[in-house]
Write a structure and sequence with these properties.
single chain; about 425 residues; seven-stranded parallel β-sheet; six-stranded parallel β-sheet; 17 helices; about 40% helix
Length: about 425
C-alpha cells in the first residue's frame, strides 16, 4: 500500500507519524516537504532525516517538481541562501524577501504532480489551517476524483482549544476524510455529529510503549544536560498579537534570566536549549549573549531524543514536555496570564499540567527547582510517578495498533 505524507510547515506531524510509519511499509511511503528544499525543515544529520533514509522512506520537496532543469540547477547553486533564510539565520528583511521569492518559484515553476507519481492509497495531511501550502485545491480535486483516503493528523498531543477543527479544505465532509484525535477528551466532533464516522480517537503514537522501547534501544542515555524548552518570541520592536502563542520579548528575556539563575546553582551544569521551530535564532543568540549564557548547546532533536540527554527541564508551557512527564523527568515551568486563561477554558488540560512542578510566575521557577532538589529520593519518585500516571489517564493505550487497524478499515470502505 502506497502512502504519502504532506508536511506544510515543520516536523510537528512527524512526531505523530514516525512511530506509525515504522509499523507500515516504510519503503512504500513518501514524505513531501512543502518547501523548496528538504534541508529548510530538517538537517541531513538530524534523527528524522537519518531515520527516514534508513527505513527507505522517499523524501521529496518542491525542488523535485521544478519543470525546467536549468532553473533547478541554478536554484541548487543558491541552496544555502534559501535554507538559512527559512531557519531564520538571516535578517528579517532578507528572510521575508527570500520567502517571497520561494513562494513565487513554487507557484509559477513547480508542477505539483507528486500525487500522480506516488499514487497513494492513503494521504496523511496536517490538521492545521496553514496558508503556506499553495496546492490545496489540486489536492482536494485529486481526492474528489479518486478513491484515496485522506487522514488529517494532529500536530501535538492535544489541540489548543476543545471543539475546534482546523478545516484545511473548503468542501464539506467526504466519506474518504478521516480526522484523527490524540487526546481522549477531545470533543472536536461535537459540532459534526452527523459525521461521527469521520473522527477517530487513536491516541498519540509517540506515547506508545512499543515506540518508547524502540527509542531506548537505539538512542544511548546520557542525562548530563539541564533541558530548556522555549517558545517563539517577538523581537524587541515587533508588534504583539495577543491571540498568538508567541511570547512578548520582555517575558522571554525574564524567562531566560531565570534559566541562567537556575544553572548557576551548579557551574558544571550545561544547558541543552530546544528552540521552537519558528524561533528567530539570531534574536535568541543575542539574548544569550546579553545574559552571558555561554555553557549551552542548541538542540533540534525530537523530544524523545532530547529526553535521553537531560536529567530535568525548565520550560514555558508546551505540549512537547508531556513526553517528559511520561518518562518521569521533572519539568519546571510557569503559568502566565495567557496560559492561565487558556487552561481555564479546558479543565482537563489544567489537571494534566498543573499537577506537576508549576510556578505562579517566572521568578518562582528557581524556587520550584530548589524545592525538588531538597526532596528525598523516595519523595521525588512518588511525585514523578503520580505525574506520569495522571497523564496516562487521558491517552489511549496501544495507539500504533489502533492507527493500523483504522487504516485497514478505511482501505476496505
Amino acid at each position: 500500500m502506497r502512502s504519502l505524507t504532506i508536511l506544510v510547515k515543520n516536523t510537528s506531524e512527524l512526531d505523530f507519524l514516525i512511530p506509525l510509519i515504522d509499523e507500515l511499509n516504510p519503503s512504500s511511503h513518501t514524505v513531501f516537504f512543502s518547501s523548496l528544499f528538504v534541508e529548510s525543515v530538517i538537517e541531513n544529520n538530524s534523527f528524522y532525516y537519518k531515520h527516514l533514509i534508513k527505513n527507505k522512506v522517499k523524501i521529496k520537496s518542491y525542488i523535485n517538481l521544478i519543470k525546467f532543469k536549468t532553473l533547478k540547477s541554478l536554484l541548487c547553486s543558491f541552496k544555502n541562501i534559501f535554507i538559512n533564510s527559512n531557519k531564520r539565520k538571516s535578517s528579517y528583511i532578507i528572510h521575508k524577501s527570500i520567502n517571497f521569492l520561494e513562494q513565487f518559484i513554487i507557484k509559477n515553476f513547480c508542477e505539483f504532480n507528486i500525487l500522480e507519481v506516488v499514487y497513494p492509497k492513503i494521504i496523511f495531511y496536517p490538521n492545521r489551517n496553514d496558508k503556506k501550502f499553495l496546492h490545496k485545491q489540486i489536492l482536494e480535486d485529486y481526492i474528489e476524483s479518486n478513491d484515496n483516503k485522506i487522514i488529517f493528523i494532529p500536530h501535538g498531543p492535544h489541540y489548543n482549544i476543545k471543539n475546534v477543527l482546523f478545516f484545511p479544505f473548503n468542501s464539506k465532509f467526504k466519506k474518504n476524510y478521516n480526522y484523527w484525535l490524540s487526546f481522549s477528551k477531545d470533543k472536536v466532533w461535537e459540532k459534526y455529529r452527523k459525521n461521527l464516522s469521520c473522527f477517530s480517537k487513536v491516541g498519540y503514537p509517540m506515547f506508545d510503549r512499543k515506540w518508547i522501547n524502540k527509542i531506548e534501544k537505539i538512542e544511548k542515555k546520557d542525562e548530563k544536560y539541564l533541558g530548556v524548552i522555549t517558545r517563539q518570541f517577538y523581537s524587541v520592536h515587533q508588534k504583539i498579537n495577543p491571540n498568538e502563542m508567541t511570547m512578548p520579548y520582555d517575558e522571554f528575556f525574564r524567562f531566560m534570566k531565570e534559566v541562567k539563575k537556575i544553572s548557576e546553582n551548579n557551574k558544571n551544569i550545561k544547558l541543552l536549549i530546544k528552540p521552537h521551530p519558528s524561533t528567530d535564532l539570531r534574536e535568541l543568540k543575542k539574548i544569550l549573549i546579553k545574559l552571558n549564557i555561554i555553557n549551552y548547546e542548541l538542540n533540534y532533536d525530537p523530544i524523545f531524543i532530547f529526553e535521553r540527554k537531560i536529567f530535568a527541564s525548565i520550560s514555558v508551557l508546551s505540549t512537547s514536555f508531556l513526553y517528559l512527564f511520561l518518562k518521569s523527568k521533572p519539568v519546571f515551568f510557569y503559568e502566565n496570564e495567557f496560559t492561565r486563561l487558556h487552561l481555564d477554558k479546558w479543565p482537563y488540560l489544567r489537571k494534566i499540567y498543573l499537577n506537576s512542578f508549576v510556578a505562579d510566575k517566572i521568578e518562582n521557577i528557581h524556587k520550584k527547582y530548589i524545592d525538588f532538589l531538597c526532596m528525598d529520593e523516595a519523595e521525588k519518585k512518588t511525585k514523578l510517578e503520580f505525574i506520569k500516571k495522571n497523564l496516562e489517564k487521558y491517552y489511549r493505550s496501544n495507539p500504533i495498533l489502533r492507527a493500523k487497524n483504522k487504516i485497514n478499515i478505511l482501505i476496505k470502505r
